[in-house]
Amino acid sequence: EAQVTQNPRYLITVTGKKLTVTCSQNMNHEYMSWYRQDPGLGLRQIYYSMNVEVTDKGDVPEGYKVSRKEKRNFPLILESPSPNQTSLYFCASRGAGLNQPQHFGDGTRLSIL
Amino acid sequence: KQEVTQIPAALSVPEGENLVLNCSFTDSAIYNLQWFRQDPGKGLTSLLLIQSSQREQTSGRLNASLDKSSGRSTLYIAASQPGDSATYLCAVGRKLVFGQGTRLTINP
Predict the structure, then answer these.
(1) What local confidence, expressed as pLDDT, does residue B35 receive?
(2) A107–B42: do the CB atoms touch at under 8 Å?
(3) Residue A43 to residue B49, Cβ atoms within 8 A
(4) Contact, A113 vs A14, CB < 8 A?
(5) A83 phi, psi to nearest 5 deg
(6) What is the pLDDT of residue B25?
(7) pLDDT tens, position by position, B2-41
(8) Of the candidates A47, A65, A90, B100, which lies 20 to 30 Å from A41 by C-alpha distance?
(9) Chain B interface, mutation test: which of A45, A50, A89, A102, most B Cβ atoms within 10 Å?
(10) Do the Cβ atoms of B95 and A33 come within 8 Å?
């Protein structure tokens, strides 16, 4: 089954404790991205990757890092999480064609205390 | 900077009605427009993608239209069912700029 898998689904942690949210897709997609969803602000792009070793900032990259060492994986790293990063996070992927639909994971709900 | 607006924010209708959800965007230079569905506790599911050269796309009871010149798209849902209850989001472009969604409730 074609899918985007995020882990963990839920995480409560404390300020400053480094964490990584993993994202994996099994569709051989070139393009992967991370979004956060906040009430009143909607979905905003954090980072995206056009292919292995190619990443770039989205609209709200501050406080986040990403890497793309393998085509299927695109982890999101919070080196020193802060309470304002409490949010619902989504990973997405799509093929390289100009008009390919995005496939989303089920989301990761992060709470930073 | 592209901005996407969806009105209304919430809509409640009785089962069986036909309904229209609206999406407007400020920059008409778009690659495509996608409509998504989001269920509580779940990710987004792509419903329809309209390329910039197209005027509409259909899938089952869903029909999406695109008018780039006026910066508008509509999602038409025919013969609504309780299972259609969800939040519907439109997003524009390859990097996906999202509207804030319309929360749809279909009452049995």
Answers:
(1) 97
(2) yes
(3) no
(4) yes
(5) -55, -30
(6) 96
(7) 899 999 999 999 999 999 999 999 988 888 999 999 998 8
(8) A65
(9) A102
(10) yes
What are φ and ψ of residue B98, in 5° steps?
Answer: -95, 150
Tens digits of residue pLDDT in A50-82: 999 999 999 999 999 999 999 999 999 999 999
CA atoms within 13 A on the CB side of B89: 21
Could you tell me the pLDDT band of residue B67, with boundaries at 50, 70 and 90?
very high
In this structure, are residues B59 and B44 in contact, taking their beta carbons and an 8 Å threshold? no
Hey, which residues 49-88 in chain B have their CB within 8 Å of chain A? 49, 51
Distance from CA of B97 to the nearest CA of A (A): 7
Given CB atoms, is A58 within the 8 Å cutoff of chain B?
yes
Which has more confidence, A2 or B62? B62
Q: What is the pLDDT of residue A51?
A: 93
- Which residue's structure tokens are 């209708």? B13
User: What is the distance between the alpha carbons of residues B30 and B23, in angstroms, rounded to a whole number?
Assistant: 14
- The count of C-alpha atoms lying within 13 angstroms of the C-alpha of B31, restricted to the half-sphere facing its C-beta, is 11
Q: Which two tokens stand for residue B41?
A: 């506790």
